[in-house]
Amino acid sequence: MSINAIPTHKDADSYTTLAEANDYFTSFYYGPNSWANASDANKELALRQATRIIDRCRFFHEKYDGEHQRLEFPRSDEENWNGKAFSGSITTLIDTNLISTSNSELYPDDYWNGGCLYITSGTNKFEKRLISDFDRATGKITVSSAFTSAIDNTCEYTIVKKIPQEIKDAQCEIALWLLDGKNKSGRAQLQAEGIKSYSIGDLSETFDVGGQSIAMPKEAYDLLEMFICRTGVF
After folding, report:
1. Predicted TM-score of the model (pTM)
2. How far apart are CA 114 and CA 12, in angstroms?
3. Are residues 99 and 112 in the same domain?
4. Which of 166-169's residues contact partners 24+ apart within 8 Å by CB, and which partners?
5. Quick check: is 3 in a domain?
6. Any residues with CB less than 8 A from the CB of 218 and at least 6 apart, and which?
7. For 67-115, how does the pLDDT look when each residue is reduced to its tens digit (9 = 90+)?
8. CB of 70 within 8 A of CB of 9?
């Protein structure tokens, strides 16, 4: 079963798609590695598990949709847009209010890519889709999988911006760490047993992630750190 990376979706089990993860490793890793050598099925398993590890952390703010959203991100401070469709099809929605003419504050091309298009009323009410393209010149939003019916002018909608890139990148780093088997190392075992820190000579490492002891690679922790809440105040 393919991973679900639609932000705010009740069945979401990943922050990044398999294609995005492949692009990440193509861009930042050179030569053979555990990701490149893994099957698509094992890559998806690693991404799901990486998502679960991330969601054990304690983050600032609350979930964007606390009632229906499965994963911890997006958070309640995330940017969104509310609008009404002018026309569309089973894979597109056109809102003329998004067309760039004289309003310099409107969003640039591709701004909403990777976000969630949520139909809040009218045809296809309650359906959510991952946005694959946003064209500012036409106000057209294209989704990655078809709606049940063609979009029409009864549709009101909300767009939630894509998951922060740092979260997606951290997920990729954890997935690679899992595929490498480094989660079974001595350091990870110490973390699993609740050890928050240790030192050997001049070397030390801290495992306290938002008040919890969570095993993950340092590369991922560095990416997540700005989102982690360590106090009782959000």
Report:
1. 0.85
2. 13
3. yes
4. 166/223, 166/224, 166/226, 166/227, 167/15, 167/54, 167/73, 167/223, 167/224, 167/227, 168/15, 168/16, 168/20, 168/24, 169/24, 169/223
5. no
6. 205
7. 889 999 999 999 999 999 999 999 999 999 988 665 556 789 999 999 9
8. yes
Domain boundary among 111, 129, 160: 160
- Please report where in the chains the tokens 């890793």 appear, as a residue: 29
Give the Cα separation of 72 and 194 in Å (integer): 23
Shared domain check, 110 and 88 = yes
Task: Show the CA angle centred on residue 98, arms to residues 93 and 100, nearest 5°.
Answer: 130
Q: CA–CA separation, 140 vs 95, rounded Å?
A: 7
Strand partners, 121: 156
Domain boundary among 136, 160, 184: 160
3-state secondary structure of 177: helix
How far is the CA of 67 from the CAs of 55, 72, 125, 162, 212, in angstroms? 16, 12, 17, 19, 25
Residue-number span of the structural domain to which 28 is assigned: 18-71+165-227
Q: Which pLDDT value is given to residue 157?
A: 97
The Cα–Cα gap between 111 and 77 comes to 17
In 3D space, the residue among 92, 130, 86, 137 whose CA is nearest the CA of residue 112 turns out to be 130
Q: What does the alpha-carbon distance between residue 21 and residue 174 come to, in Å, rounded to a whole number?
A: 11
Give the bridge partners for 157, in sequence order.
83, 119
* CB burial readout 182-202, b (16+ within 10 A) else e: ebeeebbebbeeeeeeeeeee
Contacts of 47 by beta carbon, 8 Å cutoff, 6+ apart: 3, 14, 16, 18, 21, 171, 172, 175
Confidence at residue 199, expressed as pLDDT on a 0 to 100 scale? 44
